[in-house]
Amino acid sequence: MTRELFDTAIVGGGAAGLSAALVLARSRRSVVLLDAGAPRNAPAAHMHGFLSRDGFPPSRLLEIGREEIASYGARLVPHSVTSVTGDAGDGFVLTTDEGVEIAARRIILATGVEDVLPDIPGAREAWGRFLLHCPYCHGYEVGDGSLAVFGGVPGAVRHALLLRQWSSDLTYFANGSAIAEEDARLLGARGIRVNDGRIAELLLDGESFRGVRLESGDVVPVDAVFLRPESRPRTELVAALGGVVDGAGFAHLDASGRTSVPGVWVTGNLVDPRGQVITAAGHANAVAMDVNADLVDDDVRVELLETR
């Protein structure tokens, strides 16, 4: 049985994947979007900073996006991609966890990143509600409350200095790490309290947040804790095709989002883990245009060969 060949397969159906699918489908390309249905921002009730959609539920945005791409003929396959083979010359074959094989001329990976949370009780339950990562996404909603920063991770001091923009009641938990003299000076200049304790637990009471329990047993009541988590990129498919990834696992790419594997692009949080929904969607919009231009070049090359 002959596999259906799509112009582009997009892996990942968040804002980036949907945005790329919309542009390519409107360019009259055959598009298949493969998505397992586990977006990074699933724990968040609302998204912010997206012009005209501020405060919109992320799940609703995805629902509308799926309806839009379907109206232009894009295909949605609700599966995970487990392997990929092939190249840009003969085409790629993607295999899903359900055993479905899909052929495509080009691939866009919008698989995002996995946020690595601290291994303490309450962290996973609080994530996206009381344990937050992005001040621009959540700062306004918790601003003027009592906030804390989970220290002892790269960038934590800078994160605290930024959060001071939203609240004057801010505690930096050193979390067992030494604070450099210069960092202590900067935190002091911004009026940020430093607590030397190590966080043992985030205390939730149903839908309420009670605060932070330290290893000493002390409980510090705060309204929310901000954390800069490690972000692990989901670039396994790039690596499987022999693509170059750096020490952190991110794919090498050029300004257009092309990876070192011809015919494969990356976009969204897979390029910039800090990017908000609107940033991811915008980057994917540009990536889709580049993919379409590459397909046009390929179409012209084939047509020239056929006329010889």
Automatic annotation (TrEMBL):
It catalyses: [thioredoxin]-dithiol + NADP(+) = [thioredoxin]-disulfide + NADPH + H(+). The keyword Cytoplasm does not apply. InterPro entries: FAD/NAD-bd_sf, FAD/NAD-binding_dom, Ferredoxin-NADP_redctase_2. Keywords: Flavoprotein, Oxidoreductase. Gene3D superfamilies: FAD/NAD(P)-binding domain. GO terms for molecular function: thioredoxin-disulfide reductase (NADPH) activity. It is an enzyme of class 1 (oxidoreductase). It comes from the Bacteria. Its EC number is 1.8.1.9. Residues 6-281 form the FAD/NAD(P)-binding domain. PANTHER family: THIOREDOXIN REDUCTASE 1-RELATED-RELATED (PTHR48105). This is Thioredoxin reductase.
